[in-house]
Specification:
Chain lengths: 86, 265
């Protein structure tokens, strides 16, 4: 589980760095809204990536098919929420 | 530039108060964005949801280490909450912002009632139980069980709808569900709620993001404000009386509810 904890932190700081880069560009009057939007999207999508990790963790490491299936369902809801609106 | 300063101040104050009360800051953030920045409520909701996702990820990563977060319970209940959040955000986008402001003011009154009534008991913090965590303050392992899970699903769905509609994480509803209905110890309830609110917010934030309601520059400043505010809140947590703070917070919410109600008519 400590890997999951590290994954959440890493995803947060990667998104934060991308958003920060976009913000600095914005302050310098450079056109880089797409960088900021990418950062925003990566943060919004991070929980879904976390659930994908949990699905694999419960399936392969804990051998708990029920929890693996449940975490996969949450991943699927978050993933389809994004895909169906694109 | 002034807007960024306002956003920073609003999110840091909301997050520090949220951290003090253990409920997140969305409930205060949205009305303050509307009142001080003149943002449309949908845009304010989008920034609030985005900030909640970031804070939830950071807080959860700490709770996972301490063992207070019941991860399986969190994502089992999250199935119904996430669906509720998606439904709620579509409902909010289809409503006129005056109607949404009116609904929000009514919802704030309900939250005031919940806060003054108390957020729940301590759960079954002793004796045998299927689950456990180590309480550092008590310096011992606390065992507990999960009860009435079937009641928690529909209530979680409602919490999700309110999150999607009003841009709150829903901690103010989820903590009582987990503590009172599922009989969890308060520490487990708040830790699990912190995890859940990020997932719920993620489900609804994308709807707002997709519809162009999220300003990523505001969102970035809001994240910085929340990072600073939550540190300040945690620092003062041990130094202030929770009950007094709760009453002040409820009074502020009451004033905001009144103001939003007057603006909606």
């Amino acid at each position: 589980m400590s890997t999951y904890s590290k994954l959440l932190k890493a995803l947060f700081f990667i998104s934060f760095a991308i958003l920060g880069a976009g913000f600095v560009c914005h302050l310098l009057h450079l056109s880089c809204i797409s960088i900021s939007r990418m950062g925003a999207f990566s943060l919004i999508f991070s929980p879904a990536i976390g659930f994908l990790y949990l699905t694999l963790y419960y399936f392969f490491k804990e051998k708990n098919k029920k929890l693996s299936f449940l975490s996969f369902l949450v991943f699927l809801i978050l993933f389809l929420n994004v895909m169906l609106q694109r | 530039m002034v807007d960024y300063v306002y956003i920073f101040l609003i999110t840091s104050i909301s997050s520090s108060l949220g951290a003090l009360l253990g409920i997140g800051g969305g409930i205060l953030m949205v009305p303050l964005f509307v009142l001080f920045l003149g943002l449309e409520i949908q845009k304010a909701v989008a920034i609030s949801l985005f900030t909640i996702i970031g804070m939830s990820m950071l807080v959860s990563s700490k709770h996972i280490k301490s063992g207070a977060l019941n991860l399986p319970l969190g994502f089992t209940l999250e199935l119904s909450t996430a669906l509720g959040a998606i439904v709620g955000s579509f409902v909010a986008l289809s409503l006129n912002h005056r109607v949404l402001s009116l609904l929000f003011s009514v919802f704030l009154l309900f939250v005031v009632y919940l806060m003054l009534k108390g957020r729940g008991g301590e759960g079954k913090a002793s004796g045998g139980g299927r689950y456990s965590y180590f309480d550092e303050k008590l310096n011992r392992k606390i065992f507990y069980d999960i009860e009435n899970l079937h009641f928690a699903y529909p209530i979680s769905f409602v919490a999700g709808v309110s999150s999607g509609m009003f841009g709150i994480g829903g901690g103010v509803l989820k903590v009582p569900i987990l503590a009172k209905v599922c009989k969890l110890p308060m520490k487990v309830a708040t830790a699990t709620s912190s995890f859940m609110i990020g997932i719920t917010a993620s489900a609804s934030a994308y709807v707002y993001f997709r519809h162009g309601n999220l300003n990523p520059f505001f969102a970035f400043v809001s994240l910085i404000g929340a990072l600073v505010g939550s540190k300040v809140g945690i620092y003062f947590h041990a130094r202030m009386r929770n009950e007094d703070l709760k009453k002040i917070f409820a009074f502020v919410l009451l004033l905001i509810a009144l103001d939003m109600f007057l603006r909606s008519i």
